[in-house]
Amino acid sequence: MSRRPQTDLAVLGALSVEPMTGYALRAAITSTLGHFWSESFGQIYPALARLEEAGLVGRDEERRFTLTDPGRVRLRELLAEPIERSPARNGLLLRLFFGRTLGREQCIELLQDAVREAGESLATLAAIRAEVEAENSPDRDYFLLTIAAGEAGARAQAQWASSSIASLRQSPDQPHPRD
């Protein structure tokens, strides 16, 4: 699936939850899906125009975008397509891979930041979990699945970063050959 159908999937999916303006859609994607997906205004607005022209979204009396019946069909089609895996882009791992050049102490600092960020993510996700659990939404169980994935990832990140710090502190420093 190329970038365009994935943007369409995010937009149609978000509109399946509730009608929204373009601005509210971007905010919803950022605040809700943003824990595992991102879209920019530059992707959302052209997608909305294209989807509206294709009859997959419409507008209600308040000028909010709404999902049409053909839009629901298209959303189901997109959801049923195989997931396109794209290579991860992880700046932390890129730096650690070249850690001998960066230096042990800087690598440890990066890993400590990763532990702190994982803790912040867990706190944020706990607050979101509490909100979702308090709602009586038909999407509740599915939203909780994605929250659980985020929690598991944050816990794994914290555990990995902590053990990596311990490993770096125990192993002898290897100078770079150019030093």
UniProtKB/TrEMBL annotation:
Domain Transcription regulator PadR N-terminal stretches: 11-77
One Pfam family, short name: Vir_act_alpha_C
Protein name, per record: PadR family transcriptional regulator
Every Transcription regulator PadR C-terminal domain range: 89-168
